[in-house]
Amino acid sequence: MLSKPSPLNSCRFEGCTLTGALSVTTSIREGITVIHGPSGCAHHNFSLLHSTNLDHNRIAVPHIVSSGLLDSEIVFGGEEALERAIESAISQSPKSVFVLSTCITETIGDDVIAVCGKHWDVPVIPIPTAGFLGGSFQMGVNNALKTIAGLIGVYSNNGSVNIIGEKNLEYEVEENYTEIKRLLSLLDLQVNVRFIHNISTTDIEKIGRASLNILRDAELVSVGKQLFQQFGTPFIESFPTGFSGTITFLNQIAEIYGLQGQETITYEESLHESILDDFRDITGSSIAVDHSFMISPDYAFFHEVVKDLHIKIKPDGCLVPIPISPPIGTMGIKRMLHRWRRAIHAQM
After folding, report:
1. Between helices 173-186 and 329-347, what is the axis angle to 10°?
2. How far apart are CA 256 and CA 160, in angstroms?
């Protein structure tokens, strides 16, 4: 029997390891990614990334080159095909080349590291991305971030903040970043590097200058730990979700920087109240939701909003959209409430 799966019954980050790494490397301007494997691996991912860019109103073509392994190379080895692909990539004058392995090249035993280690005119960086032994999309993201960070030297910090591991394929990636940037500005802090989202190769070299790393979510803790070991930079495990989560987030940052944050907290609390006042027209409304995933701690924001607006949950209530990824910060809740209002008013 077919049924709609609950987010609790499936891994939030399942998917191809190669695609996860590509979501990172293709977000580096002046860089080219070589996919070492059959052309189908490159074609599938190119189509996915290109269509996602269009959905985000970004007219950008992913810089991808395939080694395009043929049957004979799968049998006898594809290292020469990889060399040709790297040469093709370098002929386009990139600042860096990233080489991602596929399941088939790992299976046949191509020495990707040795090929990348030859004397090339630009850095050629191998990233392990074969996921057939239990990898996932998130593993690809983490492997890419760790590998690239591992190439960077140490810098003295300048008091700024790095944003680590944004979900480049999610619809509200820019809105979420804008919210984090707004919250940091309340404490007079600036973003150093978005590691990695639409940055140049030169920007990557600045990562060691920040005094704090903010991870997109807890699945990136291993990346945060590596950066702490490498640069001594402390990290916060995730973007804030919900009203109370935002206050906790601001308090954490203020404590790390030794700031007096009470004025900022008071301002943000008044903003919360102002937003709730703006949505008093849906106070007491009845809504329907999928209860199967409301028990997750990630959805504490939902129960908080329902309580604040005295909303009732009933089987025959208005079906409102609940984001799979919890809304980020105060403005994320505001955007969600706008969607609820439209749905509730449409049913009246």
Report:
1. 130
2. 12
Domains, the chain, ranges and CATH? 12-149 (3.40.50.1980), 161-239 (3.40.50.1980), 279-347 (no CATH)
Q: Tell me the backbone φ, ψ of residue 157, rounded to 5 degrees.
A: -80, 155
Phi, psi of 285 (to 5 degrees): -65, 160
Can you list the positions of beta strands (E) in 112-218?
A: 124-127, 161-164, 191-195, 199-200, 212-215
* Four-residue CA torsion sign, 293, 197, 61, 92: negative
pLDDT, one tens digit per residue, over 193-239 is 999 999 999 899 899 999 999 999 999 999 999 999 999 999 999 99
DSSP 37: S
The answer to whether residues 234 and 213 touch, using CB atoms and an 8 Å cutoff, is: yes
The answer to whether residues 109 and 101 touch, using CB atoms and an 8 Å cutoff, is no
Nearest to 36 by CA among 94, 96, 105, 127: 105
- β-bridge partners, 100: 35, 127
The SS3 call for residue 12 is: coil
Peptide bond into 333 cis (omega under 30): no
pLDDT band at 56 (very low <50, low <70, confident <90, very high): low
Give the pLDDT band of residue 182 (cuts 50, 70, 90). Answer: very high
Q: What is the pTM of this model?
A: 0.88
Q: Judge contact between 331 and 182, C-beta under 8 A.
A: yes
Share of residues in the chain with pLDDT > 90 (%): 66
Q: What is the DSSP string of 304-321?
A: HHHHHTT-EE-TTSEE--
Q: Which of 308, 344, 337 is nearest to 322 (CA)?
A: 337
Burial 305-328 (b: 16+ CB within 10 A, else e): bbebbebeeeeebbebebbebbbb
